[in-house]
Automatic annotation (TrEMBL):
It comes from the Bacteria. Pathway: Secondary metabolite metabolism; quinolate metabolism. GO terms for cellular component: cytosol. Belongs to the metallo-dependent hydrolases superfamily. ACMSD family. GO terms for biological process: secondary metabolic process. This is 2-amino-3-carboxymuconate-6-semialdehyde decarboxylase. PANTHER family: 2-AMINO-3-CARBOXYLMUCONATE-6-SEMIALDEHYDE DECARBOXYLASE, 2-AMINO-3-CARBOXYMUCONATE-6-SEMIALDEHYDE DECARBOXYLASE. Its EC number is 4.1.1.45. Keywords: Decarboxylase, Lyase, Metal-binding, Zinc. It is an enzyme of class 4 (lyase). It comes from Lacicoccus alkaliphilus DSM 16010.
Length: 320
């Protein structure tokens, strides 16, 4: 939908088709990203999934569409449009797709309302949210009602970086994707970990994209800070304890990095990630898992799919 035209504001992402098999996402009149029809065509995705041995794929919105900067009512309009579309694909292919929704997180009341509709009416199994909301970290007090509701309703949350910190310094070398996003993800995860939220909301399930970004490497430094600055403590235990309660995708490309994640968090907390269908994707998804010889077959099955089903509160029998 073209909200830029409707509201006279070119900050809204707009899809401009270039052919039947491709399009440009336009923001502020400039090309933000080229996409192929794999971004909207279920049959194109299913073909790739079959070729790469992927039984089930979890669908989620492209982060640029979060649009948290917008008026909440307009943000709700875009969120509902995307949630309806994703739910329609899941209905058409219930054995192949699982859907995550999106919500206008700039307003907690509106976000809770759309979360309830997405889960209860549309049957989506969780939400994807951004790593910050208009520069506010995820432990901002304005977001507490949303996390409280997600905890009470046991709605899993997948956090993807967007509007990265220091983005004014990142255009050269495409550093936004290579440095900014991992740093942003670590900040988002650190905000959750240090906030005390996981002591309060014990049923909250949160997964961080891209292996948690730089978080695994930073945890010892966070533990040291927690130790030497007691005045900042809001948690009962050090950060590394809470990091093991969160989930992370496996998109780190390298066996040594994946092994490091397993050592930090445990096999049960890692879910196969892909970044499909974009350039930084792993093809096929889970390739690095298969290459890690230290994993046995049971552990590989956990990361390839069983952990995702557990995270999303699903039973594998639903897909047989």
């Amino acid at each position: 939908m073209n909200l830029a035209e409707k509201y006279g504001d070119d900050r809204w992402p707009v899809l401009e088709k270039t052919c039947d098999c491709g399009a440009n996402i336009m923001v502020k009149g400039k090309k933000f990203r080229e996409v192929t029809n794999h971004a909207w065509d279920a049959e194109a995705r299913l073909k790739d999934m079959d070729e790469e041995g992927i039984d089930i794929q979890v669908l989620s919105p492209i982060p640029v569409t979060f649009s948290y900067w917008s008026d909440p009512e307009a943000g709700m309009e875009l969120a509902r449009f995307q949630n309806d579309f994703i739910a329609s694909l899941v209905r058409e292919h219930p054995k192949r797709f699982i859907g995550l929704g999106t919500v206008p997180l700039q307003d907690s009341a509106a976000a809770i309302k759309e979360m309830e509709r997405a889960v209860d009416e549309l049957g989506l199994k969780g939400l994807q949210i951004g790593s910050n909301v208009n520069g506010n970290n995820l432990d901002d007090e304005s977001l507490e009602p949303f996390f409280e509701a997600a905890n009470e309703q046991q709605v899993p949350l997948f956090v993807h970086p967007w509007e990265t910190l220091g983005r004014e310094r990142l255009p050269r070398h495409n550093f936004m994707y290579m440095v900014g996003m991992p740093s942003e993800t670590a900040l988002a995860a650190g905000s959750i970990i240090m906030s005390g939220m996981l002591d309060t909301y014990t049923d909250l399930k949160i997964c961080f994209a891209h292996g948690g970004g730089s978080l695994p490497y930073l945890l010892p430094r966070m533990d040291k800070g927690w130790e030497v600055w007691p005045q900042i403590r809001k948690t009962e235990k050090p950060p590394s304890h809470y990091a093991k309660l969160l989930y992370y995708d496996s998109l780190v490309y390298d066996e040594n990095n994946l092994q490091f994640m397993i050592d930090r968090f445990g096999v049960e907390q890692i879910i196969a990630g892909s970044d499909y269908p974009f350039l930084l994707r792993e093809a096929p998804s889970g390739k690095v898992v298969d290459r890690l010889s230290i994993l046995n077959d049971t552990e590989k099955r956990q990361i390839h799919g069983l952990n995702a089903l557990e995270f999303l509160n699903l039973d594998i029998e639903q897909f047989l």
